[in-house]
Amino acid sequence: MIIERTSVGLDVHARSVVGAAIDGDTGEVSRGRMCMDNGEILAWIQGLPSPVRAVYEAGPTGFGLYRFLTANGVECVVAAPSKLLRPNGDRVKTDARDALHLARLLRLGDLSAVTVPSVGQEKVRDLVRARDDARSDLMRARHRLSKLLLRHGLVYPDGKAWTTRHDAWLGRQTFDDLALRTTFDASHEAVLTTAARRDRLDEVIKVIAADSEYTPMVARLGCLRGVSTLTGLGLAVEVGDWSRFTGATIASFVGLVPSEHSSGASRSQGPITKTGNAHARRLLVEAAWHHRKPYRVPGKAMRARWEQAPPAAAARGNEGNRRLHQRWGVFDDHKKRPVIANVAIARELAGWCWSLAVLQ
Q1: Superfamily in which the 6-108 domain is placed by CATH
Q2: What predicted TM-score, i.e. pTM, was given to this entire model?
Q3: Does residue 1 surpass a pLDDT of 60?
């Protein structure tokens, strides 16, 4: 049911905001172009016939405008960009047209709103994502260094790389050529500084996971194999309110359900959709690999994590660990490709995480 008189669409950029407002009583369209100043935007909205409801797309400008408008009594919606309906034949795109399009969709009630995180949740989420960036940067830095050495015929001979012994071996490498020595030193320094940055972020994440509003959630999620402190905190802040999902819908939120194209009597399913929260999806896919290893007697680390959680969560986690390893066995018996089987395990793992998150 439409309760607002004026529907406002805002096309928000870093330095400018274009607004379009539709008066539901008269059909009149009002337009405005403003600086990215919350006070100026609010003043323009307050000059429109009330009650007013506003919308803008989620994007790099964040949720500051949403929080400011809401705090000042203006109902606001942050729309999911991937769910906006756009005519296929529309080949003209301007800020003014985008703002008007948002206002029309809001008027029709044809928008999918994103869940706006709290300020604290957003800060911790940025921390977890910064750690993920450090992981990616470290992988690339290590790759560049190892391939530099490989091009010059240097291969580490004593087993697994990037261990303490491997670091000592890298420190013993010397080169007479100035250009090669400088290149090696720069690449090696990049590996060391990036690893130190990752370790600093890990320490802060451990502190927050141990003493914050997310501690009970992390403890419950940690009852599953592969869901340690980093993964548990990451899932907690990425998903936020788990109660808005069910065990069947949580997988679609992280893009782990098969895509589908069906028409008439034909039904065709394809790869996973990969829509939704990519960070949570990566955490679940990585955690799913841990369930391939045999699960007989829980190890010392798992028992220590169970002691931090309620008994019901520990029992639920044990049940989930056995079920997920059993599913791995079924996939292996049917000669499924491991990468495909792992995604299926990750999809089921998302449901087990949900069951622990909403456990009373």
Answers
A1: ATPase, nucleotide binding domain (3.30.420.40)
A2: 0.90
A3: no
